[in-house]
Specification:
heterodimer; A: alpha/beta; Rossmann fold; 3 domains; 4-stranded parallel beta sheet; 14 strands; disordered C terminus; B: alpha/beta; 5-stranded parallel beta sheet; about 45% helix; globular
């Protein structure tokens, strides 16, 4: 196909081109990237902190588009599910938004009594030059809660820079709480956002193994948990890079080692439990309990997974997700279902991610960084895939072409993590891939209708 | 907010109901969203945001979740240096890339808050681009200014329609054609309007027309820009039409595509209410009948007849009920007018938009509207919740973002407008004309019947 020249090195075909894939680049102008912006990166990471006030400083759009769209559940307060904005207007842009920001913070803190407040800077705040940090300090003193600026001006980098800005903001809370009572076998879960209650599933596994979870950052998070997170003995960091910076800061300042994990698919989920168990080798019963847990959980889902595999064997998939680390898990999870990954890409993968992706990909697989609808549609048609795994922006590409779809993004409402999540994933893939509707779509008419019907 | 408490008066005479500094759960979206949707109603038009990458992604996601159709929006993807030194190089590279990648007929450029704030001179950028990169067959380029700190998505939509018209309409000797500017309505509404025009035998330019682009059939091959939309020929012909009709009473006396055509091309302009319910639809049909020099076609006359018959059949289920209506100002006016026709009291009429004309226009359009009705513009959902608590409504009527309020109040939500994010078929909700009123009426009655049935101890299956 006709790739934009500037994007040529961000696409590779496994086995045909050995040169490393170009990545970590600013999106090409006019390319209709599937990425969002710095603000988006910060907002998704901090959003699940349920007892904090999240105030978006800027015109209304950025706050409106991020109102209660994610399935990040809270077991208690629901404050995070609101959308608060300074809703800057023309006069604020001309004269500055500091006074409005201060008044908005005071008003909202008084109304909702949050445990902390995050103030997100949007594009124009970076241009009009509001001293957001100064206002935050002033309000923090006046109200006695942490008020944390998030430097998330949309144009100042990519979504990854937003992750870092979020980590820097939340890190100001870490180390400010009392760590007494935290046991020797304790962890923090970093980079899980409790979508559809996934953090609860994972947390329960660790609890059954005898490991205490001090803080989940940020799934179902509370400010006080984050304050004492430095008392944990190990950080388990999920989700490609969103919380890597936080893990590094905690390792540097608090000596807490970190392990990279993924909770998607049987293999990666099991590894995430074993890794933690092996870290706490002083108590061998933890590993024993982990092994028993994995046996029990796998036994519970395996018969059904086999049934799904029988219905999915040989089908081809395209994966395009935000972080590359999730893509690894998905390639493996699809393999378990007998499915082949023909196209795989991510918005924000780094060089090591793509090397690892190539290591697990079959010859001919298209690997792509920071793709766009035209490329993705072409790749799907070229590889004649049966399934697309992505987010809301990818869904119409798949559906318009008559391709089954699985939503694996932040907006999903079904838990896909953990062992039970693998079963949900298989069920969702099966329900879509094996739906009878495809036999009516133009691309499949008369070609594979009978097969799909079977 | 209690309706009995007199609200302070703003300079434009419109009462102020939003007293908070912050906006809490907005009942509006930003201007570029409206512009992008309007641009997708022009054939072969690719929306292009001059500014940050994130705006296009958020707006795409928001529109996709409603229409469930591909919605590509390009962006010039500002970096830090673009914000400091200007976005010229990003603009030019971006336009050239979309010309190559999409082969559009039109590129609709909207400037976001970022490029507006740094003061991008778009006239200059356009001129320099033309001087250096223009080739035969290059897509037409339209610019609309959409700083999100000014106005709402409706303003972005209208300004984009106006920009497209100003750029592409050609003044000429008057033809028999009509221009119809239907405002931000559903894809089903647009299809219905085109059907009505065709039944009257009227040739018309409907601007914009995303009835196909945002609600089209399944594809065999990927369409870079989904087919359909107001054609360039139709836009050119708009400058020689016999009359322009604009929906939306608050648009009267304001800059609009129709107003511009009147001034620049001497096309007479009529602003009428959004044709929701019987009276406002009658105005529209009468206007078309006059333009066509013919009576209302039989099938539409029959649809009106069936509608009246249905109102009689179902009136007791609705009579005396109280509703909270929210959404775009002109949609709210249309809905309130219909509700008053069927005996439902619009106890709260609220909008996140603030034209300054909601109260006056609503009172003019719906003279029987009770004095006690709370009319609130420029409000957020916290304000609406306050007003709703005082109004003790039986139901809410509006888009999906009111669901949490409906749930908290324990009353049903009848979904109308944009966005519909928690049901399928938002793009196919018909609300205009006699047929739309019929659907809306049936939905209203059935919703209240179902609510009563479900909250009944007996559970009758015969109601």
């Amino acid at each position: 196909m006709d790739l934009l020249e500037a994007r040529r090195h961000q696409v590779r075909r496994q086995g045909e081109d050995a040169a490393p894939i170009a990545c970590d680049k600013h999106s090409v102008a006019g390319s209709v990237s599937q990425r969002a912006c710095v603000f988006c990166g910060s907002r998704v990471v901090l959003y699940p902190i349920a007892d904090a006030l999240h105030l978006v400083h800027g015109p209304i759009g950025c706050a409106a588009y991020t109102w209660d769209i994610r399935g990040a559940l809270s077991s208690g307060p629901q404050l995070h599910r609101n959308s608060f904005s300074t809703d800057l207007r023309e006069m604020d842009v001309i004269y500055g938004g500091e006074k409005k920001l201060e008044a908005a913070l005071l008003e909202l803190i008084d109304a909702h009594q949050p445990s902390a407040a995050f103030v997100y800077s949007t594009c124009i705040v970076g241009v009009i030059g509001d001293d957001v940090a100064a206002i935050c300090n002033k309000v923090a003193k006046a109200r006695g809660i942490p008020v944390l600026p998030v430097h998330s001006e949309g144009f100042k980098g990519t979504k990854k820079h937003g992750y870092r800005a979020a980590c820097e903001a939340v890190y100001k809370l870490v180390g400010t709480g009392d760590t007494s009572g935290i046991g020797p076998h304790s962890i923090n879960i970093l980079g899980d956002f409790n979508l559809a209650g996934e953090t609860w599933i994972i947390r329960d596994y660790y609890k059954r193994m005898g490991i205490d979870v001090v803080a989940c950052i940020t799934g179902d998070a509370r400010v006080d948990d984050i304050r004492r997170a430095h008392g944990a003995k190990l950080n388990l960091v999920q989700c490609s890079g969103s919380m890597t910076a936080l893990g590094q800061m905690m390792e540097r300042d608090h000596g807490i080692p970190q392990k990279r994990v993924s909770y998607f698919g049987i293999e990666d989920m099991s590894a995430a439990l074993y890794d933690a168990a092996k870290f706490f080798a002083d108590d061998p019963t933890i590993l024993e309990r982990a092994e028993a847990l994995v046996r029990e959980e796998v036994a519970a889902i395996y018969p059904q997974l086999r049934q799904f595999r029988a219905r999915l064997e040989g089908r081809k998939a395209a994966i395009y997700v935000g972080g590359a680390f999730k893509a690894f898990s998905l390639v493996r999870a699809l393999k378990l279902l007998g499915m082949e990954t023909s196209v795989v890409g991510s918005q924000t993968g780094g060089p090591e991610d793509y090397e690892q992706l190539r290591a697990i990909s079959d010859p001919g697989t298209i690997i792509v960084d920071d793709s766009n609808p035209l490329e993705l549609a072409q790749f799907c048609l070229e590889k004649d895939v049966d399934l697309f795994i992505g987010g809301v922006k990818e869904r119409p590409i798949a559906y318009k072409l008559g391709i089954a779809f699985c939503d694996h993004n932040h907006e999903r409402k079904e838990p896909l993590a953990g062992f039970v999540g693998m079963l949900n994933f298989a069920r969702e893939v099966d329900r879509s891939v094996n739906s009878p509707v495809w036999k009516f779509v133009p691309r499949r008419r008369g070609v594979r209708g009978a097969e799909v019907e079977a | 907010m209690n309706a009995a408490v007199p609200a302070p008066v703003a300079p434009d005479d419109e009462p102020v109901f939003h007293h908070a500094v912050s906006t809490r759960n907005a009942c509006k979206l930003c201007t570029p969203l409206g512009a992008c949707l309007a641009f997708r109603g022009i054939e072969g038009c690719l929306p292009f945001l001059h500014g940050s990458q994130g705006c296009s992604t958020y707006i795409r996601r928001y529109l996709i979740s409603h229409f469930r159709e591909p919605m590509d929006i390009a962006a010039s993807n500002f970096s830090e240096s673009s914000a400091v030194f200007g976005g010229k190089s990003n603009f030019e590279a971006g336009i050239r890339n979309v010309v190559k990648g999409y082969q559009p007929k039109v590129i609709g450029v909207a400037t976001t808050c970022l490029s507006e704030t740094i003061g991008e001179d778009m006239k200059l950028l356009f001129r320099e681009y033309r001087e250096q990169h223009w080739e035969d067959g290059h897509p037409a380029m339209v610019h609309v200014s959409t700083p999100s700190y000014s106005g709402t998505h409706v303003d972005g939509f209208r300004n984009a329609v106006r920009a497209v018209t100003e750029t592409l309409a050609v003044r000429g000797a008057q033809t028999g054609r009509l221009n119809l500017f239907p405002d931000m309505v559903s894809a089903a509404d647009l299809r219905y309007l085109k059907e009505v025009l065709a039944d009257f035998g009227l040739a018309a330019s409907v601007v914009p027309d995303y009835s196909e682009t945002m609600d089209g059939p399944s594809w065999a091959e990927y369409e870079k820009l989904s087919s359909g939309g107001t054609t360039l020929d139709e836009l050119r012909a708009a400058g020689s039409a016999r009359v322009s009709i604009t929906f939306g009473r608050t648009q009267a006396g304001r800059p609009s595509a129709g107003a511009w055509l009147e001034t620049a091309c001497e096309v007479p302009h009529r602003v009428i209410g959004m044709p929701i319910g019987i009276r406002e639809s009658d105005v529209f049909f009468d206007l078309l009948a006059a333009a066509a020099g013919a009576a209302v076609p039989e099938r539409h006359a029959k649809e009106r007849g069936r509608l009246v018959d249905a109102l009689v059949d179902g009136h007791k289920y609705l009579s005396g009920r109280r509703a909270v209506v929210y959404g775009e100002e002109d949609l709210v006016i249309g809905l309130a007018s219909f509700l008053c026709e069927i005996g439902v009291e619009p106890a709260v009429c609220a909008s996140g938009g603030r034209s300054g004309a909601l109260t006056r226009t609503l009172r003019e359009a719906v003279p029987e509207l009770p004095a006690s009705t709370t009319i609130a513009s420029g409000v957020d959902f916290t304000d609406i919740a306050d007003a709703a608590a005082a109004a003790r409504p039986d139901l809410l009527i509006g888009h999906s973002k009111g669901y949490r309020l409906a749930r908290a109040l324990g009353v049903p939500l009848v979904r109308v407008g944009f966005p519909i994010h928690d049901r399928v078929g938002g793009q196919r909700l018909l609300q205009l004309g006699y047929r739309g009123a019929q659907q809306l009426f049936d939905t209203l009655v059935n919703t209240l019947m179902a609510h009563k049935q479900e909250s009944s101890d007996v559970g009758y299956s015969y109601l």
